[in-house]
Every structure is written in structure tokens, then in C-alpha cells.
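We were asked to recover a plausible sequence for a given structure. The inputs and outputs are reproduced exactly as logged, with field labels preserved.

PROBLEM: sequence recovery
POSITIONS: 282
GIVEN STRUCTURE:
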């Protein structure tokens, strides 16, 4: 290992570099994900660098005092097999303190994650393709208004393991290639979702809803944003209603990961998770 190697917090502009690495790995991040990622936890992003040159990365975003999520664990191909990844991993894990850490692991790495103390919780399947139709619902979703995020944030905190208000304010703000929708009944939120432009097509996430009818209304509102491009949704496999919705509009399985936790697994109501927010941040 080079004597000039060190792990440090990311500097301005380096998260964009790491997301470009993620694109090269085929992870297909959103075009403007760095804006909201930074808001989630500015102290949660690290690079390993040789002098001033970043060679690897990890994010361990802390949500409150009991939960963190690990992602963006990448070593640039030119620097693999030299021990840099282990050092970056150790620094990232240490930054979480005694919090439970979650991650979404591909099959090839799951044995390594087990050795590091992570245990599998459930499978997530990415469904993708060009939607052949819009789902039918008895409800109608509406665009999220930036001035009315408080109720949405409360709804989210009943599903995600910890409140993430600052992140959601950035994630759900409408801008080019990104929009969010909410569905209500009797003035109560029954679900919300976000679609964003990615390097390939669009991703929908989160897609949180009380039931399939509410999720269908959200999809019917969000999918037209893709304008005929491919859409992708990361769905917990055990949510059969979510799988049926995706298959019903012509999407097919294209990728699979396993949610794993180091420490006590949070109680997530997966029947309300019709789409994961992002594999990088949970």
C-alpha cells in the first residue's frame, strides 16, 4: 500500500466523481443524485486517496442515532488488489459507531459481507423496461408541492427506519428530470413516490404506499415523466402486490440484491414498500 494513502471525508466535487465511477460499474445513478445525497449526511461520504488522487470510496450515511446505510463502496479498477478497499471499508464502518448498518449487496459479495457481520433480511429485485401501459386505480395522485413536505416527511418516517427530513426536502424537490407525487384519500396521505432521470432511463423510488391501489395511482402519475424511456423500480421480493404491479405494466426482473444488516434489523413494513428509495442510501 502506498505510504501516501489515506482515508478522508469527501471534498466538494468528489461525490460527483464517485457517482461517475458508479455509472461505470453499471449501477445507473440519477443525474443529480449528489444534491440530495449530500443533504442526507454531509459527514457520511469518504474517499481513499493517494496524495490528492481519489482511488476508492464508501458512504455510510447516518440517520439519527441508531441507523446508518452503507453504499458507494468502490475501488477504481486501476487500484484494486492492493489493500485500499479494506482500509476504506474499515474507516466507513467505524464512522457509524454502534448504529445498525444496512446495505444492499450483490450475490457475489454477500459472503464477504457475512464475514463482516452482516446478515441477510430480504431480497430486492430491480424491475425494468418500457412500460406498456399505466396501471388503473380508483385514486388520483397529485404533484408534490415543495411547500407541503411536512406531512410527506411524517408519512415516510413510519416506513423508513429513521426520520430523514432534510434528505427528503432535497430528494422530492421538483427540477428538470425529477418529480414527486402524493396520493391522498379523505385528506390523509396514502402514499408518495419520486421519479428521476438516470444515466439510463428513469428510476422510481421511493414508492411507498398503503396499498396497491395507492401505488398504482402514483405510478400512473409518475411514469409519463419518462416519455417512453425505460423505467426501473427496486422492489422487495416479498411484496407480491408490488411485483404484480410491475409485471402488469410490462416490467421484467433485471437485477437482484439482498438487504443485509449489521446489528439489530429495523422493523420495516415491507407491505408498504412498493419501491426502495435508492440502493446507495437505503
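RECOVERED SEQUENCE:
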Amino acid at each position: 500500500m502506498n505510504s501516501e494513502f489515506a482515508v478522508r471525508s469527501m471534498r466538494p466535487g468528489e461525490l460527483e466523481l464517485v457517482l461517475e465511477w458508479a455509472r461505470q460499474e453499471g449501477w445507473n445513478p440519477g443525474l443529480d443524485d449528489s444534491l440530495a445525497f449530500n443533504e442526507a449526511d454531509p459527514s457520511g461520504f469518504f474517499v481513499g486517496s493517494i496524495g490528492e488522487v481519489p482511488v476508492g470510496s464508501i458512504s455510510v450515511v447516518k440517520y439519527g442515532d441508531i441507523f446508518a446505510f452503507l453504499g458507494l463502496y468502490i475501488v477504481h479498477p486501476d487500484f484494486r488488489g492492493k489493500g485500499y478497499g479494506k482500509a476504506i471499508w474499515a474507516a466507513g464502518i467505524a464512522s457509524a459507531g454502534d448504529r445498525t448498518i444496512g446495505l444492499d449487496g450483490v450475490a457475489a459479495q454477500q459472503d464477504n459481507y457475512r464475514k463482516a457481520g452482516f446478515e441477510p433480511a430480504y431480497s430486492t429485485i430491480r424491475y425494468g423496461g418500457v412500460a406498456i401501459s399505466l396501471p388503473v386505480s380508483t385514486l388520483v395522485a397529485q404533484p408534490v408541492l415543495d411547500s407541503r413536505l411536512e406531512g410527506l416527511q411524517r408519512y415516510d418516517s413510519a416506513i423508513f427506519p429513521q426520520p430523514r427530513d432534510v434528505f427528503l426536502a432535497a430528494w422530492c424537490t421538483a427540477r428538470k428530470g425529477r418529480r414527486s407525487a402524493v396520493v391522498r384519500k379523505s385528506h390523509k396521505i396514502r402514499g408518495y413516490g419520486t421519479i428521476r432521470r438516470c444515466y439510463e432511463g428513469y428510476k422510481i423510488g421511493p414508492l411507498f404506499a398503503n396499498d396497491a391501489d395507492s401505488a398504482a395511482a402514483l405510478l400512473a402519475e409518475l411514469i409519463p415523466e419518462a416519455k417512453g424511456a425505460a423505467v426501473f423500480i427496486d422492489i422487495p421480493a416479498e411484496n407480491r402486490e408490488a411485483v404484480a404491479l410491475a409485471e402488469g405494466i410490462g416490467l421484467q426482473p433485471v437485477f437482484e440484491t439482498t438487504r443485509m444488516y449489521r446489528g439489530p434489523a429495523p422493523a420495516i413494513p415491507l407491505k408498504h414498500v412498493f419501491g426502495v428509495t435508492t440502493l446507495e442510501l437505503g
